[in-house]
Amino acid sequence: MSPSTSLRACLVLALLTGLAGLAVRLAVPVAPVDQDYRDVVAFYRAMPAGSGH
Fold it and tell me: How far, CA to CA in Å, does 20 sit from each of 6, 8, 11, 46, 47?
């Protein structure tokens, strides 16, 4: 397999992967953020910087 063929195969695979990701993103609805998630984010925002793990 020549380097040109290998590069072409890599680019085609990257394009197909990107298109598959876009198709999944468009097909699956985004779940809304629930109150539990907002509570966790608020908790971590209230912590002083550098104290989280």
Answer: 21, 18, 14, 39, 39
Q: What is the DSSP string of 1-53?
A: --HHHHHHHHHHHHHHHHHHHHHHHHHSPPPPPPHHHHHHHHHHHHSPTT---
Q: Do residues 15 and 7 touch, judged by C-beta distance below 8 A?
A: no
Contacts of 22 (CB under 8 A, 6+ apart): none
pLDDT in tens, the chain (53 residues): 677 889 999 999 999 999 999 999 999 998 888 999 999 999 999 988 776 56
